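WARN  no MSA supplied for this record, continuing single-sequence
INFO  ligand: N-(5'-phosphopyridoxyl)-D-alanine
INFO  echoing inputs
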Amino acid sequence: MSTVYLNGQFMPIEQAKVSVLDRGFLFGDGVYEVIPAYGNHLLRLNEHLRRLQNSLDAVRINNPLSQQQWTEILQTLLAKNEGQDQSVYLQVSRGAAPVRDHAFAADLVATVFVMANPMKAVSREKLEPGVSAITLDDIRWKACNIKATALLANVLLRQQAAIEGAAEAILIRDGRATEGAASNVFIVQDGVIVTPPTSPMLLPGITRDLILELAHQNDMPCAERDISEADLRAASEIWLTSSTKEILPVISLDEQPVGNGRYGPIWGSMIDIYQAYKAKLRAGEIQ
Ligand code: PDD
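INFO  complex generated
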């Protein structure tokens, strides 16, 4: 039985209950983060907490906890739960109001929920076979930089991919690839690693930023620029990135092979660099 954190207390997950009037339940009115931990070391904790603050500011919820309080809760939860590697899910919803009303009062007490789940170890060997993806029209709103719990469009888009036997949907807005339903997208174009610039049309992924940083450190050519649908279809490599997926090679797009239909050499270099980074984090050699 896993231990979770709810509004100031640690408890078995079965005992964690929230009001049916919670606006997270009624409106999807909340924000969240997913943070991987390798050997109890949280990956890019400061960056995740900064993005949480940005999401909270954007939806006008006061951050109910300080950076130090968040850190203590996350560390305690990792210690209370099992798993060499875990992913922490944290959510802040606006809380319960006495009546259902779209508009909200400023003085509601936010609901804070955190859980930790064991994460299957991701290795180069496990990722090498790659996945297939489909393209779909990006039907989401224009504030996708907010990590909001209201994910109905993402849920339906990912489900459509699953129905079509694909692992992910790559979303197209105004002729450009924005991101996946639950991941960021990269392509390799003429040997250059390319990902769209941050904008309200996509989530500023922590994994995305880490990959760009690692590419710079290792003198791998990379660029943040728009990816047209034509660029996507002509790419020699396509990758999907997220905290839980790490860097996943896409080997087929809309049933057409990507490159030669196998993972590409630049993915091969980057995944080794990423795994080495994780190993250092796990060993406590980096923060
Ligand atoms: N999602 N874009 C979207 C729409 C996402 O939902 C995610 C991650 C990402 C990648 O962000 P990061 O590298 O910070 O994980 C991009 C998480 C994992 C989820 O919803 O479970």
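The mean pLDDT is 97.
INFO  checksum written, moving to next record
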